[in-house]
Please model this.
Amino acid sequence: QSVLTQPPSVSGAPGQRVTISCTGSSSNIGAGYDVHWYQQLPGTAPKVLIYRNTNRPSGVPDRFSGSKSATSASLAITGLQAEDEADYYCQSYDSTLSGSWVFGGGTKLTVL
Amino acid sequence: EVQLLESGGGLVQPGGSLRLSCAASGFTFSTQAMSWVRQAPGKGLECVSTISGTGDIFYADSVKGRFTISRDNSKNTLYVQMNSLRADDTAVYYCAKRRDSGTRNYRDWYFDLWGRGTLVTVSS
Model:
């Protein structure tokens, strides 16, 4: 049970826009800690997609964008492509107990 | 080329030990914070341990007292010694480089480079 809650799955047709939510609380996102997003293609290691809430590393298409507000964050993907089919994870820091970097449970994106 | 290469995974009995290594190349290893992140079969990601460039160490509660992270900057290599292994430690273990997101707060570090992972299976 992750402290960051993501929907288990989302889907969309090629060309469409989808969003993936990441809901936290006052001990993580709501405390002002940054949210980062990772893409994990099947059988591969995760790759950073968005860092510090809204920033894209070089090489990441501008079809991917991030936002953050209050105790939640979202990843939006526009112009959906077949190669976007992957698992997506949000990540932040949680200050409960001894504190730790935490991930959401992950969202499987299916391109129809 | 900037890369991380893990090794040392395998099958171990419950209660046993294993040491994983991660060879880094293409960047100044000694100044970078590094982490071990694991992923149980079909499950999500868990950051189990982090060591900063200055030697500060962090552990997830799930491995505290059983895992020990260390680094050899002369060999550009990260390690994790895993003792008292349990079935729920079964996972792919990834080595990952940490990066400051720009806030200069270690809590905002993210994982900007990942290795391919090494599988650890704890079973009798």
Notes: The mean pLDDT of chain B is 96. Chain B touches chain A at residues 35, 44-47, 50, 58, 60-61, 64, 94, 99, 101-103, 107-112, 114-117 (CB under 8 Å). The two ends of chain B are 39 Å apart (CA to CA).
